Amino acid sequence: MLLAPYACQPALSRGRRVPEAPAPTRSEFQRDRDRIIHSTAFRRLVYKTQVFLNHEGDLFRTRLTHSLEVAQLGRSIARSLQLEEDLVETVALAHDLGHTAFGHVGQDVLNECMRDHGGFEHNLQSLRVVDQLEQRYPQFDGLNLCFESREGILKHCSRSNAERLELAEPGGVARRFLAGGQPSLEAQLCNLADEVAYNAHDVDDGVRSGLLTWEMLEQVPLVRRHLLATLDEYPGLAGKRLACEVIRRMLSAQVYDIIDATRAALRTADPQSADEVRKLPEPLVRFSGQMRTESTGLKRFLFANLYRHPQVLEKRARAEQVVRDLFAHYLAQPSDLPADFPGAETHPRRCADYLAGMTDRFALREHARITGTHIMDGL
């Protein structure tokens, strides 16, 4: 496919931290995508929680299925905007590699545990995974990805961590957090596709779990519009078919809105290269004003009615205890960490790296081994 001038061009990549000869049959971004797929961290995503713990049901999303959905949405939109699809897929598949077990609760608790040791950010951890923690190659630590892939993976970064990264890599992936620039359009697209994907699948999983009902969801304009249109066209539709059709329509509406709004922004800004995009004050990949309002309304509804549901919170409290207990144990017992686990700047950071890589079920089994108690049913 012919790429637009504002897309990232594989042949013009800023390159890898350790130079490598080009692959004979793959572009640089295709090579990065393949490295992600074959990584250990990517395989672990299948047993990491999105909202519902992995063992609570076979059909609930995990970090792996979420990442695949983000990649599918991202590639579809990228094709319409003439962006680099392989780079979009790479970033989408890698964006949650640094997420802990037990969803956002794991990240929150690990950040608390690391408060006096530099904190914990899952986006920064994803970068650590691909830069340092994966051990697959004899020549270097990590996966040695291209600058553009690493730039997209580092979605957010605190100023203190950005300053530390900038010292180690001047002008590198953290510069934009200090200078106020933007990432590539491909990275911007992954950020928005991530939001679209998790809003939609959390509605689906929430209804499937019984914690949300369509009557509750009718309060949300983005859902209500497509729910009523579906029932008007298919009176009496219910159950799985109703959920699939409503969510399909929601996804389509958001995808087409992003394409239209982004095309309008591109016409106004008229960037002629990926580097011109990086110098702009605001992202160009965006929702329209109305869709942004509706998406934000759905996020607020899900936070209040799903993420803060008593059943979810009850599991959250147990997950918090698991992470705290494990961190305290490894901090006090360094010899319990695997001998071949990669080193880090400090012992607490090495503990955090090890915990962040755990799947839900491995963390629960380790907790049971260490404490002698099974804190959560199902495993």
UniProtKB/TrEMBL annotation:
Classification via Gene3D superfamilies: Hypothetical protein af1432
A Pfam family matched in the record: HD
Record bears the keyword Hydrolase: yes
CDD domains listed in its UniProt record: HDc
Domain of life: Bacteria
Entry keyword set: Hydrolase
Transmembrane residue ranges: none
All residue ranges annotated as the HD domain in the record: 63-199
SMART domains, sorted: HDc (SM00471)
Cross-referenced SUPFAM superfamilies: HD-domain/PDEase-like
Keyword Hydrolase found: yes
Family: Belongs to the dGTPase family. Type 2 subfamily.
Protein name: Deoxyguanosinetriphosphate triphosphohydrolase-like protein
The organism of origin for this protein: Roseateles paludis
